[in-house]
Each structure stands twice: as C-alpha cells, then as structure tokens.
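User: Structure tokens for this complex, please. No commentary.
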Amino acid sequence: MNHRKMKFSNVYLWVVFIILYAPIFYLSYYSFNSGGTMHGFDGFTLDWYKEVFADTRLLVILLNTLVIALFSALISTILGVIGAIAIHRVRKRKNQNALLSLNNVLIVSPDVIIGASFLIMFTIIGIKLGFVSVLVSHIAFSVPIVVIMVLPKLEEMSSSLLDAARDLGATEWDVLTKVVVPFIKSGIFAGFFMALTYSLDDFAVTFFVTGNGFTTLSVEIYSRARQGVSLSINALSTLIFLFTMLLVVGYYFINRRGLVSGRVERNMDWGPPNK
Amino acid sequence: MKSLVRMMLLVLVLGFALMYGASALNSSQGYSGGNTLTIYNWGDYIDPELITAFEEETGIKVIYQTFDSNEAMMTKIEQGGTTFDISVPSEYAISKMKEEDLLLPIDKTKLPNLKTINPRFMNLSFDPDNAYSIPYFWGTVGIVYNTELLKGLELKSWNDLWDASLRNQILLVDGAREVIGFGLNSLRYSLNDTNEDHLQEAKAKLEELTPNVKAIVGDEIKLLLANEEAAVGVVWSGDASEIIGENDKLTYVVPEEGSNLWFDNMVIPKTAKNIEGAHQFINFMLDPEHAAQNAEYVGYSTPDEKAMELLPEEISSDKRFYPKPELTAKLEVYDNLGKKMLSHYNELFLEFKMHRK
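Assistant:
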C-alpha cells in the first residue's frame, strides 16, 4: 500500500517537472536548428551561438544584466539581513507582525505598479534613467525577499544561545558577528541567490526604468520578439539557463557544505545538537 | 562570517570585472564620446548596416533603443529622464504627441532629400504640412490567407470573411480600430465613421462573424499563421510580408472596399539633445538608396518614389504591398477621433469580443 502510494507521487512529480522543463528544452533544442524557424528541424548548427557572440550590443546588454543582478543582490542582501534582524528584535508580537505584513505587501504588489511608481519617482527627483535607476529599483524589490528568507532562520535561533554568549562576555558586536550571522548564514545565501534570480529575470519593473542606452536582457528580448523571435535568442536563453543552473548547483553545494560543517562544529562545541 | 565576507568580496570583484568588460566593449564601439544620437525605434525596424553606414559617414555614434508599442514609447518620452533624439511613432500617436507638446518642429531646410517623397504621403490630416513628422514606412490593413488550406478559394473583399466555409478559421489582430474599422468598411462606411447607427450596424455585422473567428490575438498572430494554425488572418501589411516570407503558401490582399492606410513617421521628441544630428539622420534615411535598402530589409513599404525605382522589380511591382492608385485612393488614414469616441470604439470591440459563438 505504502509502496504504491510512493510510486504515484513519484509519477506525479515527474509529470510536473516535465511540464515545467519541456518549454525550456524545446527552446534549447531549436537553438541548434540550421533552419531559421521553430518549426521543422533542418540540421545541427552552432551558427546562432556564433551570432550571439558576434552581436556586441547584445553582449553589452548581457553584461549589464549580470552586473545589475550581482550588485543589486549583494546590496539587497545586506539591507535585507539588517532589516530582518531589526524586525526580529521588535519586542511586541503585534508590531512585529505589522512590520512583516508591510514587507510582504511589497512582495505581492504587482511589478507593473512598482515599476510605474519608480518611473514617476525618478523623473520627479530628476534622476536620469539608466544604470542607477535600474539598480535602485532592483534593490527595492529584492530586499523584502531577502527579509523573508532570513527571518525564519532567526526565529529558529534559540534565545538561550544569545544569553549564553552574553554570559560568556561577548559584546553585542560579537554576538552579532560570531553567533547570529553564522547561524543564519544559509538564510543569507538563500536570500542572495533569490535576489540574484529575481533581478536576472525581472521584466515589468525594469521595463519602466531603463533608458539612455542602458537596458537589460529581458527588456531587449521583449522588444525583439515583436518581429518574431530569432533563434539567436534561443541560443542566448539556453546559455542563461545553463548559467542559472550552475548558480543553483553551486548554491546547493555551498548550502550542503555549510550544513555539514555546521553540524560538525556544533557537535564539537556543544555536544549533541539539542534538536 | 569570514565566508560571508569572502563571498561579498567575490561578488564585488566579479561585478566590477563585468562592468569593466561592458564599458570596454562599449567604448570599442565608440559609444563613450560626446557626439551621440539616441534613436528610439520599433524592434527590428531598421537595417543595422544603415546605422553603421550613418556612423561612418557622420562620425556620430548611434545609441539604438527599441520599444514595442506607441503607448509605451509615449509614456517614456512624456516622463522625461531619457534623451531620445529620434522616434518613430504611428500617425495617431503623432497627433496625440503633438497635442501634448512632446515634439519639436522639424527644420525642412536641413532635409534636402525630402523632395523624393511621394506627395501622397505628405501633408496628411494627422500632421498638416509635416511640421513635426517625416514619413518612414507605410502600409495597409488587409487579409492574409493560406491558398492551400482554402483549396484555391480567393478572398477579395472584407465580405468574403463572412463565408460559411471559413468557420473557425480566422485570426484577428487585437485592435479596436482595426476590427471595428473593417466592420464599417464591409458596409462601405468610412472607418472613421462616428455615426451611431452605422457603428451599431457594423457591430451587428461583426457579431455574425464570430462563428468564423478562431481567436483574437496579439503579435503571435504571425507565428500562428506561418505555422498554419489558421487559414486566414486580418493583419498589417508589414506583418503580412513577414509571414509570407516564412511560408509562401500564404498571400495578402487589401480588400476592394477599402481599408486603413497607416504611417510610421520619424519625429524629434522634445527630450532631444542632438537636434542637428537628428536632422542629419532623417536626411540620411530619406536618401533613396538608403530608403530602398531599408525597405528591402524590413519588408514594409517605402514612401520614397526614387527608392521605389531602386527596389528590385519583384518588390516594387508587388501589388499586394504597393497597391495601384485606384485602390490607394480608397484607403483611409485613421483620424484622431477624440477620447470619447475612441472609448466608444473600444467598448464596441469589447462587446464583440465577448459575444458568444
């Protein structure tokens, strides 16, 4: 009985994964098509990949996209961690929940509205659209995500741990850097990678705040798609898919190593983990 | 903590390295100099070789950006924050931008090449005397159909769409003006008609069309028709030439009752910084040779008479995209109907979309 149930859930899982991944593989498959369209596979070619690397404008846009993703993820991670710790420290449960809800509202509010508001704000302040405006808006929508990723880790942390550290003579700074931050490290990494991927694929917000020759990949692909998507876009998408795969795999290994070493450390320092 | 700091440094180093790479690539293209021209155009709407040729000829570096709808482009320009020197809106957008004071007047003394433009495409209702806009491309709205799937059936007029044999075979573009427009045209009314009786008549007629309509779609209409998902489509001529390029079983016809004639014109937005360069660029694009090269690449119809002579015979003699004067005389340009009438059109279109088969 139990065995059969397992099997069904496995099949279900596979079906879901196939549905999720099929369009991506379909797209990648045609990036090797020597015919110019997405119907009918004529033969294998790497021409579309060559075209991607010959198109300097596209490469500049790709680099811009990555720069924005890295910087916005980094800055929003720092801001988000500080924010999460601050929310965690709020004493009253009610206030804490209120703050958290405010944070969540930003996650669920539509990108289009965030983008439009940023566009209006930037033009009122007089900031030129371009690198800075894109960076600032990406940081803005990433921070709440980081907060959400870090907060559960903080909740997990037992307060006796902090008390023990203080009893042993740690200053507040020591407590923060030697106890709290190492404990929530996996949450921080998760937040960083989430922010990175959100920034990489965001279209709606970015669409509003790009300008003056600075643009990101999602916006560029969207406007190119008007005339039918060239297969070089397939090639580029394949490359980016591989890149994000690498990121995820990298994150997985960092996370696992962190978990293992964390457990070992705890075993050594405080005996068997109390959970 | 240490590993976090290490990670942070790594990200910073990587970020700056990529940034350096981007700016190095950019300056290898010469974008860093002061003499630049920012062009805001539809996606894939110019032969990239022409941009290179322009850069070589004038020494001006071109920053090229793209948009996908008149509305998005107008919003960007209205908000400021960017310095677009050239944009290419469609006619109704031009009259709207004029109303909202978003355009700079064009100095025609700086455009010696203007003389080869067919006078038919000048001095039109949306911009009298071409004070603010210069023709770039023009086209029509018409019917694309698959001769093979229709087994030789020939479509000539809007009324052929109502033929019972086309059940569930027609794709329509998602545009209120286009659909209500051909509804009016099929009754031999003007597509700028504002007479309420005529509009209701057109709507009633369109509702009879619903059994034949497979879907009302956006830009994906090109892909669907090329892939033979449907036999008939109501599209713009430029899209049509592209679809035919991909699947030669398809052909295009401008219905005999008349149809819409549209224009995309070059304008100088009020945000422009390099006004001199903008004029140089417009003049460059008006050069018959460049206009012909561009028309061949993009597939839309050029308004330039001289360029027509330079185009390969098979393009310039193609009656589907360069229709005869008898037909062009019947074509109408969209008037700016005003906000109220336009929303009435939208409402009628919405009711048509909701009508059950």
